[in-house]
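Tutorial, part two.
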Amino acid sequence: MASSVDKDGAEEDRNTPPEADGDQGEVRGSLLKLALEIGPLVVFFIANARLGIFMATGLFMAATAVALVASRVLLGRIPVMPLVTGVFVLVFGALTLFFSNDTFIKIKPTIVNMLFAAVALGGLFFDWIVWKTLFGEIFALTTKGWRILQFRWGCFFLFLAILNEVVWRNFSSDTWVSFKLFGIMPLTMVFALAQMGVLKRHGLQGGAVDDTAQGGRTGTAGSPERGTG
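Running the prediction step on this input gives:
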């Protein structure tokens, strides 16, 4: 009986398509990335409610550093956008604690999102598809698709920068912290999901070559996420 069960199990393993293992790995990787992005914000939210904005800022910095290290160890790399956001968290968090002024940590999202918007929209002006450089190993899109995606994300980052200014200047610190976790993250996820249509319409199937590429910087794909901090 045991031998029969072993044979059945081995047969099931042989019959399991390799794509299934790959899909499961991608799901686990995506969930891990999400946890590493949301984790520091959760720490910031809880610490602010219990200890105040300045203690929360210190713990936010520590949690961000841990998340970056964990990303390097568990995923083998630190995506560019979370890395940039993390550096700004550490710098502006340190300024917040040194000067005992929470304005620094509050304007950090504005500056980071303005930077991302400038790179995205400015890159299009100079005919540089930054999104292809960052995510070319993840998605295969036509040049038009990359341009649309980069323009939309550039506008979205600009929107987030303006929204952050409105919230921190007109509401309490507690409201602003809650907004970061329960406002920014859901908005970003919804916006990302809304771009699935672009990925489908402008995706390159199999080994298809993008015949709309025009060489130069728009025709090169580099190695590669979301960092709205």
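The mean pLDDT is 81. In part three we will examine how such features are distributed along the chain.
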